[in-house]
Amino acid sequence: MSDVQKIYISYNNIHKLCQKIANEILERNERPDIIIGISGGGLIPARIIRTFLKQQGQKNIPIQAIGLSLYEDMGLEDGVEKIGKEVIRTQWLDFGALSEHFDSLIGKKILIVDEVDDTRTTLHYAISELQKEVKEQQVKLNRLDEETAFSIFVLHNKDKPKRAELPKDLMESGHYLVGETVPDEWLCYPWEADDIEEHTRLAKLQGND
Ligand code: 5GP
After folding, report:
1. Source organism's superkingdom (predicted)?
2. CA distance 176 to 39
3. Centre of ligand 1 from the C-alpha of residue 194, in Å
4. What CATH number is given to the structural domain containing 170?
5. What is the reported pTM?
């Protein structure tokens, strides 16, 4: 018998977490200019939070998807074989669409969205690469004095030691936004459920509705 605890999360629960974080963002007057969803788990929360960030008379916030996958690889660390985790890009920003409709990422408020911060490897990779991307554009366009503001939103942060860090200024300035901090258990999201009725029933039983 497996002793892995499972936490079931319903669509309603996800909807409400997105609404809560959107309200916090709007209260701080920090509506993003663009949302970047990490595919696949970040895409549904990205779309939902956009709804709650919409304000009358304002255009919908554009969403771009980036695809990142985590692979385990064996490597040597101090002569000892260890399993490491490597992030592979499967999809990246659409610069054509960005420059056509949106100028560039320089000077913008950018909200990165994913479903779960587990070891933090994926989020670390995403923000480092996006920051690098912006810096390169700034150098190319000679716009070095403009400030680009990154925020991160995850539905769940697992309370556990992390393998990677996020920028200190982002963490300390309240730009790491968490729907809910959860224990280090396996989270079952509704988009993975074979039987959504049973999944939702279990989520309700656990109070995640
Ligand atoms: P990381 O370890 O880089 O923070 O997370 C990598 C990815 O592993 C997440 O984006 C997510 O797709 C997957 N993952 C980690 N923990 C869970 C979990 O509890 N449930 C599900 N469904 N996916 C998870």
Report:
1. Eukaryota
2. 19
3. 19
4. 3.40.50.2020
5. 0.94
